[in-house]
Specification:
By secondary structure, the protein is of the alpha/beta class. It has one domain: Spore Coat Polysaccharide Biosynthesis Protein SpsA, Chain A (Alpha-Beta Complex). The protein has eleven helices and 13 strands. The strands form four sheets. The chain has a seven-stranded mixed beta sheet. The protein has a two-stranded antiparallel sheet with strand order 2-3.
Amino acid sequence: MANEQRRCKKAVIAVAGFGTRRLPITKAVEKSMLPIGDKPVIDYIVDDCIRAGITEIVLIVGEQSQQVRTYYGHNAKLEDYLDETGKTKLLDQVQKISGKANFTFITQDSTQPYGTSVPLWLAREELGDEPFLYMYGDNVFYNADGSSAVVDFVEQAVAANTAAAMMAVPVPQELVSHYGIVATRKHGGLELYEKIVEKPKPEEAPGNLNNAGCFLMTPDIMPYVERSITHALQHEKYFIDALNWYVQDGKDIAVIRTDAEFIDCGNVQGWLHANNRIISN
């Protein structure tokens, strides 16, 4: 799969949730648009994708979403004002946002199921037969030296030459009960995915690797994604179910560890920490 992965140009980013962990502010401000410094959370994820060679970005948004669309669109009145007042640097800055990549917006409306499988299923026609990144829209990966964890992930995934890959980040053992912990096995010098154990007790955890919500896949995952939506007993449709069935059918998923700091911006503490880390750098 290495040659296919090198041609990876597309990314799907899931940002359709209501942001219930950040209510009441997310009643008015989309969670992906909460600011880290002078940029929204989503823009850090988009920029990481672009640095990794992504040129087409599919954003799965909620039916109430307008702010993400506005951010990656043009604002003619603003641009005219900046031009007329001679604020050329700011004009250049805002004009570049919409030209960063080719953006496609797909609405996940209230008639559809809820869960991490659904955004990917909605994007299937945009992906064709090409490999792609799938990322959750809450998570920022921070390196003090300015390097990109997503770039490093893609490079290591290419080198692994497996059917798929996922990013994982070590967390302190005493905190594993807060996360979905990845169980792995070793084979041929690679670390491969076996399953995820949700919020295990520290003494029962299979390790300390947290699922970072960043995957490199090919469209052969889609039958398993569909199955996770149509056959799952629980109300919420989990992408992890698709991954589990995928490996049960003999596919290998490389687990790529990152040294980057994983910051969950979906909660207040993570969002504040992201601001402190990034602004102070």
